[in-house]
Design brief:
By secondary structure, this protein is mainly α. It folds into 2 domains: about 55 residues, no CATH class; about 160 residues, Cytochrome P450 (Cytochrome p450). The chain has 13 helices and 4 strands. The strands form 2 sheets. A two-stranded antiparallel ribbon has the order 1-2. It has a two-stranded antiparallel ribbon with strand order 3-4. A hairpin with a 2-residue loop joins strand 1 and strand 2. Helix 10 crosses helix 12. The mean pLDDT is about 90.
């Protein structure tokens, strides 16, 4: 179907996608429209809900990518996968996202927050976004995943760079293609942790990363190491939404 020329814009452009007057007009006059090739925008609750609850009719593949961009399955975040792979991965992850694991992480999280604030107070001045809210939620996620404390801030810095790069839209940056090509330091760090869990076998730490590495379903299916790396980035980068929420509360 053709683009709705009267409502056309580039959804991947951060300026155009935050043109609130344009978006208000679209919601008012054409709540379901085609602003660009291969893109359908829903701007009201009923239509948006209908899309989200009908995965058979409305695919999530390429959901976060620019029109026409296709990335390998192993480079795809969970939200841009359809069945049967999406529910298979989700079943693995849900074993790690439990109330007991959240409760177990709470003492560590409280101590970490207290330590960060004390270090900032000793400095006398800081940027609360850069020094506290950006690294903090991801640090808690990294702890649950099983990442050593000393790697948390570096990982969240790389994930912040990734989210604000061309990678989400295109799957690449000027440095290279995919997470490994575009962010080699991030990929190398996570690959080493994944290999460590795989080598440890049944003696691996009891954490989310070990769960992803060692879980097999009844048919012997497992999440590949490449996709585990992508999913860890997915979880860590997703924590940045909490960072921005905290920033809005400051």
């Amino acid at each position: 179907m053709p683009i709705d020329e009267d409502f056309a814009f580039d959804p991947t452009d951060p300026v155009q996608s935050k043109d609130w007057e344009r978006l208000r007009r679209i919601r008012r006059e054409r709540p379901v429209c085609r602003p660009a090739d291969n893109v359908v925008l829903t701007s009201r609750y009923a239509a948006t809900r209908a899309v989200f609850v009908d995965a058979r009719k409305f695919s999530s593949v390429g959901d976060m990518r620019a029109p026409g961009v296709v990335v390998p399955e192993a480079e795809s975040f969970l939200g841009e996968l359809d069945a049967p792979l999406h529910p298979k991965i989700r079943r693995v992850l849900m074993k790690g996202f439990t109330r007991s694991r959240a409760t177990d992480a709470e003492p560590w999280a409280r101590a970490s927050i207290r330590g960060r604030i004390e270090r900032l107070a000793e400095r006398g001045a800081c940027d609360l976004m850069a020094d506290l809210t950006i690294p903090l939620p991801g640090s808690v996620s990294a702890h649950v995943i099983g990442v050593p404390d000393e790697l948390h801030d570096a990982l969240m810095g790389w994930c912040d760079e990734l989210l604000h790069s061309s990678w989400p839209a295109t799957g690449k940056t000027e440095r290279g293609v995919g997470i490994e090509g575009a962010f080699p330091e991030l990929a190398a760090c996570l690959d080493a942790l994944i290999a460590e869990r795989a080598a440890a076998g049944p003696e691996a730490h009891d954490d989310l990363l070990s769960l992803m590495v060692h879980t097999r379903d009844d048919e012997g299916w497992e999440i590949g190491a490449h996709h585990i790396r992508t999913l860890v980035v997915n979880i860590l980068a997703g924590s940045l939404s909490a960072s921005y929420m905290l920033g809005n509360l400051l």
